[in-house]
Specification:
Blueprint (H helix, E strand, L loop, with lengths): L1 H41 L4 H7 L4 E8 L1 H4 L6 H9 L3 E3 L7 H11 L4 E8 L12 H4 L12 H8 L5 H9 L1 H4 L11 H4 L10 H11 L6 H20 L3 E6 L4 H4 L5 H14 L4 E3 L18 H17 L1
Parallel strand pairs: 1-2, 1-3, 3-4, 4-5
Helix pairs in contact: 4-15, 7-8
């Protein structure tokens, strides 16, 4: 009798536990669904949203890189570049994104789309610190407007350095708690600053460059990210995808300040020579100070000038 009573009590406990769990899970599920609906309503520029929301497409070029590449896709710049080149182009550059970030978004892109070519807009700062690589990938703000997708979750969970972010994407915790859930995701840089010309201020320039280029450069870190970049390029080439590596225009006063740039260029050229990839260096082309909206990012006039004089002819070949 005691055994039967214990079984009955166990069943009652299990039933109560399931009811209690359902009471908690159902509201959470409703919040998750509501947050997901808000993503589809308000997301505009999130790169993961762009990949998920577009129907499976064959592109001619995917643009990758950090903020200098991202500016090339602000406002209506991508349609303009498409019109100039007669190519199908998508800009998946992520602000503050190093090679690890670019590799993640590109791998996710390939789960739905295809491309004939990759344009990698390269910046040396992204090779000098975890800040722009592992740490950037662990920033849940990157994924607040990313629609739920098991493909993205798998990409994140497969890498130990992003496993916790993968769990967050699956559970939707950060998405549910997004304080800007009702706001557009268009950044101030794109919405307003992109249309202005920057008047150089030494203090602002110094703060910007000190933020990007921590000194002294850790050569071991530099070598590691260069090796990861080479591995990424080899992987892209193995898929039969053409690669173009581009250095964007930078004001001369900034070029003179950037530490270790000659060494970076030399190491980069050696790497690209091994892969038979040319370096298209536009550092000193179209870099008049009036063509930038801040210390080092092209404004709208600067991007249009860069497209017409350099990038569009390159991509149209």
């Amino acid at each position: 009798m005691a055994a039967i009573r214990n079984i009955t009590e166990g069943r009652h406990f299990l039933t109560r536990a399931l009811v209690f769990a359902a009471i908690g899970v159902l509201p959470y599920g409703a919040l998750y669904a509501w947050s997901e609906r808000l993503v589809w309503r308000h997301a505009q520029t999130n790169k993961f949203f762009l990949v998920k929301s577009a129907p499976p497409t064959q592109y001619d070029y995917v643009i990758l890189g950090a903020s200098h590449a991202a500016a090339l896709g602000y406002q209506d710049m991508t349609p303009r570049l498409e019109a100039l080149t007669q190519k199908k182009i998508v800009n998946l550059a992520l602000v503050g994104g190093g090679v690890r970030v670019s590799r993640l978004i590109f791998e996710y892109f390939l789960t739905r789309h295809r491309t004939e070519g990759v344009v990698y807009v390269i910046d040396s700062f992204a090779f000098y610190a975890r800040t722009w690589n592992e740490d950037r990938l662990q920033d849940t703000r990157l994924f607040l407007r990313a629609p739920f997708d098991l493909s993205l979750a798998r990409e994140l969970l497969s890498d130990p350095s992003t496993r916790s972010v993968g769990v967050d994407v699956l559970t939707g915790f950060s998405k549910i708690n997004n304080k800007d859930r009702f706001a557009s995701d268009v950044s101030p840089e794109e919405s307003t600053r992109f249309n202005r010309s920057y008047r150089p201020v030494q203090q602002i320039d110094d703060q910007r460059l000190t933020y990007l280029y921590a000194q002294p450069i850790d050569q071991a870190v530099f070598a590691r990210y260069m090796a990861e970049f080479e591995d990424f390029l080899r992987d892209v080439q193995s898929r039969g995808i053409r690669v173009l590596v581009v250095k964007p225009p930078i004001p001369e006063r900034i070029v003179r300040w950037i530490p270790g740039e000659q060494e970076f260029d030399g190491r980069l050229k050696e790497l690209l020579a091994r892969l038979d990839i040319p370096l298209h260096d536009f550092t000193h082309a179209g870099n008049d100070e009036k063509l930038f909206y801040d210390t080092d990012h092209l404004n709208k006039d600067g991007v249009v000038n860069f497209f017409q004089a350099a990038l569009a002819p390159l991509l149209a070949q």
